[in-house]
Amino acid sequence: MQLDALLEMFTDFVTPEDAKAFRDKADGLMRAAGGRKFFDDVLPNLGPECALAILAPPASEKDWFPHIFVALAAHPGGDKDKPADEAVLDAVNWAATTAVFAYNGLGGNPLTLKSMTAEKTKIKYIEGGDGLPPGLRPAFALQHGFLTLGSSPEAIQRAGAILSSKPAVRDTQPILWMSLKHMRKFLTDRREQVADYLAQKDKIDKKEAGKRLDGVLGLFEFIDRIELTHPKDGQFSLRMQMSLALK
Q1: Is residue 37 assigned to a domain?
Q2: What pLDDT score was predicted for residue 1?
Q3: Are the C-beta atoms of 231 and 237 separated by less than 8 Å?
């Protein structure tokens, strides 16, 4: 479903006055940040393709925070002078700049909005601050027809590799695919680092933090994979691959 149709459906559940106020505010913010009207110019050019991925960082990477990214299809639209996808990117950049400015006003270790270029893609990311997990550097970019928001520049680069790759041919593409086997491996391999962070963040003993991690691992001990598919209209299929054979 296109996002404009989804939001139009949402406004059906509020009063006409509230719907108009919402539209006016969204349009005003978008014009200030990206120079385009949100509902008329930008929204019709977003989606419907979207994706969320959570991946373990490479074993060689010292920081433990997962590589997370959200990708939303963003099309330029018909106005070559004011492409809608670039307007969305400008709005995200405006929001990030505002957030950094507001955070730095609170004192403490300041945040910095930086930029880099990788594989001809310009990536902006936030670095610094207090208390962020090692490896978390929120980033964003416009690449391969998608607005991509990620947990780090490295996550954005991994997203780019996935978005530009040829999709595997399957009878039914999964809506959700989760490898609990790999999640267990990630938490096992990074147990000490994650326990250290949890202990500092929650001000608890490291042993207690380790017990919490073991509890999470125990919840998914017998499941290796979960897959949700949409074979045909009105039907969904949920499959679970067990790590041990059922008796």
Answers
A1: no
A2: 46
A3: yes
Task: Compute the average pLDDT of residues 101-114.
Answer: 90
- Residue range(s) defining the domain that contains residue 228: 174-242
Over residues 12-29, the pLDDT tens digits come to 777 888 878 878 888 888
Residues 84 and 138 in one domain: yes
The verdict on residue 13 lying in a domain is: no
Distance CA 19, CA 62 (A): 48
Write down which residue in 139, 163, 187 finishes a domain. 163
Instruction: Say if 247 falls within a structural domain.
Output: no
Name the pTM for this structure.
Answer: 0.85
Q: What are the DSSP calls for 154-197, one per residue?
A: HHHHHHHHHHTSPPPP-SS-EEEEEEHHHHHHHHHHTHHHHHHH
- Over residues 126-133, the mean pLDDT reads 84
